[in-house]
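Batch manifest line 418
LIGAND: iron/sulfur cluster
JOB: complex structure
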Amino acid sequence: MDKNSKRRVKVDENNPSIQRIEERCINCGNCMRICEEVVGINHETEKEDCSICINCGQCIMNCPVGALLAKYDYKKVLNIIHDTDKIVTISIAPAVRTSLAEEFGIANENFEDILPSIARALGFDYVFDITFGADVTVMEETREFLERLEKKGKLPLFTSCCPSWVKYASIFHPELLPNISTTKSPIGIQSTLIKTYFKDFSCIDNDIISVVVAPCTSKKYEIINGDTDYVITTQELAMMMRECKIDIEALKPASFDSLLSKGSKAGVMFGRSGGVMESIMNCAHYYITGKSPEMGEYHIEMNSPIESKTYKIGNKSIRCLVVYGMKSLESVLDKIGSYDIVEVMNCPGGCIGGGGQPLIPIQKLEKSEIDRKRLLNNEDAKVQFCFENRDVVELYETYLDRPMSQKAEKLLHCNHMK
Ligand code: SF4
Ligand code: SF4
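JOB STATUS: finished
ARTIFACT:
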């Protein structure tokens, strides 16, 4: 590198999430600045042959010349769709529906209704909504939290759905790993259930390939262990659509495939910071009182990257903290013992600001994030809470028995200490 050039983030060849096109790089140093100052990674301890990267993709969003990109897997997915021996499923994350339209120059539109038609036009055999997996994550994680609370287990419980946060903890705070929920993330749960529950009940003999569309480059790292075969980003889905000449105007609204077809508002809320906590508190209310909470009773508005609330549910007082950004997290770690449960996400505003989302000119970024959040919040969910979702109730009745049953623990939980 030119001796006058600024420091850049190192991108290892085997990084599953990001790549750099050297010919485009103008050595501006923006990537290192964002990584250190915004994401909060300390590169001081980095070794020559191995970079420290939590795979978040925020450097991609801030590279002025498009030299940094997600590592693309969509061509492998296109190839495998045409492998007739395999059943290829696609599951689409909540944050994708709010931003895919932006890729096609359509502002303020939620693509939920035409996502199934898009997936079928691309040739996928089954199309599922990850909000289902997210609902199951809430059922499991809430039960896990209440069990830790009752049995005086490791607290505070940290949420586990953001792989960048889990990787950050494993590098910089391994002492916190026992505090991280063992419940798999929504995509982890969704893919496991596709390959077990859905396969069994649909009497499918062929191999199933589980593809996930996520707003997040870090999910490409998360799936190294687990049942998901490929993660493509929102941007990659748009690339596939262009390559396959999908005409959005010609598509009609359609439904997701059944068994794992639909999630509640709880699942949708995973797309934004504060949404996981809100969903867990709603579910805790139900587990503790046996009744549904009032709408919005546990709503958390993220007016800043750190928000806290204390809720009284039954005879329990639950101290909640919601944080996005590792720098923000570091600033509250010395007080972490005063909380029972902590939601952590890496990206600004949560997954809606993920590194796999469409690139937005910096001056429009804030408005776009507000629009994405509004589209998620306004979603006309037919079912408000995960425990009211008929598909989720049926999953437990017919297959898993109850949250944290032996079978649920075996299939839907993991060990972050490995
Ligand atoms: S992906 Fe995230 S952690 Fe990795 S280099 Fe880019 S900004 Fe830093
Ligand atoms: S931000 Fe992009 S152009 Fe600037 S140094 Fe990093 S990779 Fe190169």
